[in-house]
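Section: Multi-chain targets

For targets with more than one molecule, the full set of components is provided together so that the structure can be written out for the assembly as a whole rather than chain by chain. Components appear in the order listed by the source. The example entry contains two components.
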Amino acid sequence: GNSVTQMEGPVTLSEEAFLTINCTYTATGYPSLFWYVQYPGEGLQLLLKATKADDKGSNKGFEATYRKETTSFHLEKGSVQVSDSAVYFCALSKAGNTGKLIFGQGTTLQVKP
Amino acid sequence: SQTIHQWPATLVQPVGSPLSLECTVEGTSNPNLYWYRQAAGRGLQLLFYSVGIGQISSEVPQNLSASRPQDRQFILSSKKLLLSDSGFYLCAWSVEGPTSGNTIYFGEGSWLTVV
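Its structure, encoded as tokens over all components, is:
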């Protein structure tokens, strides 16, 4: 079946450090891939997405590249800020599957000043 | 632009009491609608989705039900809450289309504590 696996957290970084949160997926065909962010006490916000192989999604300094050969969609940011502290969810959606999302378990990021 | 609202934002309910969470979407027609639940310290689980008025699909057997009385309204209900129903409930919407990439957009969420 389809699934998403994220690196376990929490990830603790100092401000301006480089961030990588690993995400790998299992799916048949060509899913769309997403990163969502959940700030404390809030709902989920779409951070970025990629709909086909080799696409790069980017937003707010975050990037992720759809790698079909490694079935990965790792999230990266060159210089994190305290305000980036949140839970990050990797997810996939299969075309023709009513847009239902399959989520990873989430990775908590803590950025210290 | 499209917006999604759900309410109430927070509620504390006794075991055995009923539940009604409401969600509305504005700025789009015939959206797909979803209810997800996020239990404490865990990921998100899809509970229900709907592709049209009166059309509800359940993903997991449980104590909850969903209804879609209008195109842009989605309601999550329970007749008798259990302690295990506690969690963060998220309503979401999407539209089908070649450019949407099946992107799903979430509401602000509702915190339910069953005591």
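The two ends of chain B are 38 Å apart (CA to CA).
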